[in-house]
Amino acid sequence: MTADEDDYNELIDPDMRGETYFEVLSGCELIGFLTLNISENVADIGIGMRPDLTGRGLGTEFMSSCLNFITKKHRNVKAITLSVACFNIRAIKVYKKLDFKEEYHFDQQTNGGNFKFVSMRKKVSLE
């Protein structure tokens, strides 16, 4: 996170992050975070899992808990969007498993470099 000064400053400053950042806990243990911005019934999210927990098959459960939180907290949400670096194959696999569909690709300056990203969207079923 420290490679992108703007993102890092937002993460550590309570005034900058406002009410858009949420802790993801397992019991009392911090396992990651969720960012949530809602506009016109669409939740745009960002997630981060603690690095020592990645690559251990926990991604689907982590992401499912984030999605459940969103749909319970914001029942009017009709879609959830996210952007992920194209090199993050494991994350993309998890998102596709949870019915996210690729929308478009774009380049983004972040973490000290320019990277290809994919925007993904999941329709939220009304139950």
UniProtKB/TrEMBL annotation:
Show where the N-acetyltransferase domain sits.
Answer: 1-125
Q: Which Gene3D superfamilies match?
A: 3.40.630.30
Q: Which GO terms describe its molecular function?
A: acyltransferase activity, transferring groups other than amino-acyl groups
One matching Pfam family is Acetyltransf_1
Question: Which terms are listed as keywords in the entry?
Answer: Transferase
The reply to whether Electron transport figures as a keyword in the UniProt entry is no
Among PANTHER family, the record links this protein to: GNAT-FAMILY ACETYLTRANSFERASE (PTHR43415:SF3), SPERMIDINE N(1)-ACETYLTRANSFERASE (PTHR43415)
Protein name, per record? N-acetyltransferase
